[in-house]
Amino acid sequence: MNIDDTVCHCFHVTARKLLNWARLHGPRVASQLSDCGGAGTGCGWCVPFLKLIFQRARAGTSGQPDEVCPTESAAFDRLTAAEYAELRAAYVRSKPSRCERPAVSETPPAEE
Fold first, then answer.
1. What are the structural domains, with CATH classification, of the chain?
2. E strand or H helix that includes residue 110
3. Residue 60 CB contacts under 8 Å (≥ 6 apart), including other chains
4. In the prediction, which pLDDT does 57 show?
């Protein structure tokens, strides 16, 4: 993926925005990247990628694949924006919709 590609499709947050935000604000944990435009708080697909971006920013790397976690980083960097979006769409389709999730009963079941 390129630096200007969207990482969080729910809230349209790019890798560049996330890296810059992390460098400016110095988050202590990856989950604080959600303060950057809500990244990672929608469908959840981008959370592993946010962790990778957090590691890169924390290490002060330029984003080269071998500087953080060679396997994950290289896989992320090889993805095109279209492939990333396609994988995310498949992830979202695989999750049950809110209508399909079982409702929580307000009343306890009757005892026999």
1. 6-92 (1.10.10.1100)
2. none
3. none
4. 84
